[in-house]
Write the structure tokens for this entry.
Amino acid sequence: MPRKPVHRRVAYGLPPSEEARLESFFGIQKAFAGVVNPDGSLKPAAIKALFERFQINFKAFAGGLGVSDAFLHAVIARRKRNVRVENAIAERLGFDPHRLWGRSPLDAA
């Protein structure tokens, strides 16, 4: 496949080079190293890394849900439990809520 010139790659929303794409991939892989629980759910560090990766502002996201950012951090750290907030986080990050939080579908009922 022919390579697009750098100025066109950026216009198409592509990384400027293959090396930049791999660097981004390895950055994501490094962020996820050791942050998956044995049940397949993500540890708080991984969820926070995804928030940073997708440039989601904690305070704005929490305000949109009608909760404080401290409460949002407590839910992410699993110190508090709120299924509505957990589902909203999973939806925004593009994960299945049951997979992200390591719960069975019966827990959400």
